[in-house]
Specification:
mainly beta; nine-stranded mixed beta sheet; 52 strands; eight-stranded parallel barrel
Length: about 800
């Protein structure tokens, strides 16, 4: 019997789009921005940088008591300098982090009280002391007091001892600092039995905290928090206690941090309930708990929080398809009637979604709106993320019932998305240009001499995030390789991004080949560990059609997670003026939808608009204002006049750059183009410096010229002096390429206690102390930009540190801010 091929199975129907409903008429109160906090998010004054701190409008941070022994950095008063300098709200002082061990050594309440006295004296005397909040106990349900025991009699004995100590410490703090605000009880999880007893006791004894704290660190917290919150508020009411401020001062699992699609789930539920919340500290201090790369570079998580900071007006009711369900589509939204803007942040699911917005009032947004949709993708904990790409700009008609639906298609569950609605004017918005892009998971490739592992699932919530929850490791033999079968639509240059982890303790390498051709060496900088994802960006030339890209073992070891191929274009971003941070007298003009489609920001006398401009690397970029009249742009200590439509050449540092626009003009956008040219940059290798006091050149394979300046500092005599010839006087950026790996291991299984180094940098008689973050290994070198002033002609740039070691210096570069 002869049979033909089997009939093709009918194509599976695409899953229906989920609906996220937004009711602009159901106000939940003013936008609080309370859920953007971080535990040990700051490590030193200057780490992370001012340029990544200021835009986030952070409400609270939690840091250790000054000079606490728990960690080598993150002291509350020290980091408060940069926190308050950049508009931060409150600093929660983790008082028991004065102790060295984890769990804290229990030396008795009398020992602790001597430490409480010192902490209170420090805080009471600190600048901005009114913005510090004391947290006397950390996770007392299991540390020192064992309050989670099931046996009721044992619980009551332990409870009463804790209550006695709470009252004693509370009153001891107030004895030194009568105006102190105190937070607690700060359990490791929500325990209604203890909280009910605690509130009753604290009310009776007049020792109620000003801020109620507990932690939400369980894999089910996204499901359970709403019930915890509702139960707690009902308990307050039953006991006759006025509602206290709430700070969930540790939230999220490792798999959530840095992942925009996970973070939107957490932030939406905290903002909806108007509580403060600080992300948990699982890894290293100083990177806002996984949202800042190096010192100044945003990743995808940072951009989500930047969007969150950009919400204004009042939050409105959002109804997700499956409320209070882990890893599902969730969102939050705001309406600003004065700006005539509605914004929706959503994420947590893959596929398509319809954002159904109701009660779009004609007096606010008119009869037609421009809907702008953008994506903040996951770029790893240590992978830089450019300004989120606009996916679509669409003019939509508002239905008679005041509704409008915005489709968001092809979502990635690890991404977050922003929908902005503004009144539509005349003209047509510029069509969003989205280049071809395709992603390929390493676990789906052909693997030789490697092993697929599962990471960061709900059942392993404290595992690290991985694309597709899998990666490929153990690529450490001579035969190890991963072969990706890819396809591209046209012949040309493609950007290749490799999501990886490096466990070698120094840069590692693999060999990249296309279709078995001559391999090229790919160098992977160090990461915190092999699970802490970073991103390596390359370019490849491909002809139209299918190809095999092979990454094979060379030196050291790297774990592969995913590769992305994107058609190469010159980076170009139009930063919408009506979405910038503003101060002073401004107005919003939506009569024209040309350009970005979001109208124009009208700057009055003395008004400012601040743009967050991303640069993939240090260098010169073309900046063009789309404005009705000249504006003044301020950047890195330089202020220049920018004429409408006329290009400026400005120097940007790698990562985020705060550009301030002033002047009486209607400003539509600030357009920034380029890849970072070094034309006109002065460069000086370490070999060109004059060294003294023991500072000397050290051979290093990964340094620019094969050596760096080491043994610098730790003595007033130890210095490195560069003689610089400046072509003109004015504002420059000093870019320092440096490396170091100072650490102090406190024995915490889940914290990497890296330390920063500082250098006193003297230029033109002015000395400033500059902080240099740890670069993960002694063989890795990062850059840090420092604004300086040079006079025309001869200048000296001097590095030193009389009291401690300075970082190793590879080279310096100097660039006039205006090229």
């Amino acid at each position: 019997m002869i049979t033909g091929p089997p009939a093709a199975a009918p194509a599976a129907a695409a899953p229906a789009a989920q609906t996220l409903s937004v009711d602009l008429a159901a106000s939940e109160g003013p936008v609080m921005h309370g859920a953007n906090g971080a535990l040990y998010g700051l490590s030193d004054d200057g780490v992370p940088s001012d340029a990544v701190l200021e835009p986030l409008k952070i409400s609270t941070i939690s840091q250790k008591a000054e000079s606490g022994a728990q960690h080598p950095n993150g002291d509350a008063i020290t980091v408060s300098k940069s926190f308050f300098r950049n508009g931060g709200g409150d600093v929660l002082v983790m008082m028991q982090d004065i102790y060295a061990k984890w769990p804290y050594e229990d030396l008795g309440i009398d020992d602790y009280l001597t430490k409480v006295d010192g902490i209170a004296e420090d805080v009471e005397a600190a600048p901005n002391s009114e913005h510090f909040v004391y947290v006397p106990f950390n996770e007392p349900d299991w540390i020192w007091y064992e309050l989670g025991v099931e046996d009721q009699a044992t619980y009551e004995v332990n409870r009463d001892r804790f209550f006695k100590d709470w009252k004693t410490v509370y009153e001891r703090i107030r004895a030194t600092d009568p105006d102190a605000r105190i937070a607690g009880p700060n359990e490791s999880a929500y325990h209604p039995r203890l909280l009910t007893d605690f509130l009753a006791f604290a009310k009776e004894e007049n020792v109620l905290p000003e801020v109620m704290t507990w932690h939400e660190l369980g894999s089910g917290s996204l499901r359970d928090f709403q019930d915890h919150y509702d139960t707690y508020r009902a308990t307050e009411k039953r006991l006759g206690i006025e509602p206290l401020a709430i700070n969930i001062n540790e939230y999220a699992n490792r798999r959530d941090l840095s992942v925009p699609g996970q973070l939107v789930q957490w932030v939406s539920m905290f903002e909806r309930n108007k509580v403060y919340a600080d992300q948990a500290y699982w890894d290293a201090a100083g990177n806002l708990d996984g949202n800042v790369v190096h010192t100044n570079i945003p990743n995808g998580g940072w951009w989500f929080f930047r969007w969150y900071a950009g919400l204004s007006g009042r939050t409105v009711k959002v109804t997700p398809p499956r409320p209070h369900t882990v890893d599902t589509l969730q969102g939050l939204a705001s309406l600003d009637r004065s700006r005539r803007q509605a914004q929706v942040l959503l994420g947590g699911a893959s596929g398509d979604a319809d954002v159904a917005v109701r009660h779009v009032h004609p007096d606010v947004c008119g009869r037609h709106v421009t809907a702008t949709v953008a994506e903040a993708a996951w770029s790893g904990y240590e992978g830089g993320h450019a300004t989120p790409r606009v996916l679509s700009r669409t003019e939509l008609k508002v239905a008679r019932d005041g509704s409008v639906t915005v489709p968001v298609t092809g979502m990635d569950r690890m991404s977050a998305y922003r929908v902005v609605l503004t009144p539509a004017g005349s003209g047509t918005p510029a069509e969003a240009t989205v280049p071809f892009t395709a992603s390929y998971e390493a676990e789906d490739a052909v693997i030789t001499g490697g092993q697929v592992r599962t990471q960061g699932t709900v059942s392993d919530a404290n595992g690290y995030a991985a694309s597709g929850t899998k990666d490929v490791g153990s690529l450490d033999s001579a035969q190890s390789k991963v072969q990706f079968r890819v396809s591209v639509p046209a012949t040309g240059t493609y950007d290749l991004s490799v999501l990886y982890g490096n466990q070698s303790g120094s840069p590692s390498t693999q060999l990249l080949s296309v279709d078995g051709g001559t391999p090229a060496v790919v160098t992977y900088p160090s990461t915190e560990n092999w699970l802490y994802r970073a991103k390596k960006d390359l370019t490849v030339e491909l002809t139209a059609g299918s190809h095999t890209l092979t990454l094979a073992h060379d030196t050291g070891e790297a774990t592969l997670d995913r590769i992305d191929l994107t058609a190469h274009t010159t980076p170009s971003t139009a930063y919408e003026a009506t979405l910038a941070d503003v101060s002073g007298r401004v107005a919003y003009d939506y009569r024209s939808s040309a350009g970005t489609g979001t109208g124009a920001l009208v700057l009055g006398r003395g008004a400012e608009a601040v743009f967050d401009v991303y640069a993939p690397r240090d260098g010169y970029y073309t900046v063009v204002p789309r404005a009705s009249a000249p504006v003044r742009l301020a950047l890195h200590g330089e202020t220049v006049t920018a004429h409408p439509g006329r290009a400026l050449k400005l120097y940007l540092v790698a990562g985020n750059n705060r550009v301030t626009a002033t002047g009486q003009a209607a400003l539509r956008s600030l357009d920034v183009t380029g890849s970072g040219s070094d034309s006109g940059v002065l460069s000086y290798a370490g070999t060109e410096a004059e060294l003294s006091g023991g500072a000397r050149l050290v051979a290093a394979a990964h340094a620019s010229e094969g050596s760096y300046i080491g043994w610098l500092g730790n003595s007033d005599a130890s210095k490195a002096v560069f003689n610089v010839d400046a072509p003109r006087a004015g504002a420059y950026v000093l870019v320092v390429r440096y490396g170091h790996n100072d650490r102090r291991d406190n024995g915490h299984a889940y914290n990497t206690d890296i330390m920063a180094r500082t250098a006193d940098v003297t230029v033109g008689g002015r000395t400033q102390k500059v902080t240099f973050k740890n670069t993960w290994s002694w063989d890795d070198f990062w850059t840090l930009g420092v604004p300086v002033e040079l006079r025309k002609g001869a200048n000296t740039v001097t590095f030193g540190n009389a009291s401690a070691w300075a970082p190793n210096l590879d080279r310096i570069q100097l660039a006039p801010v205006r090229g």
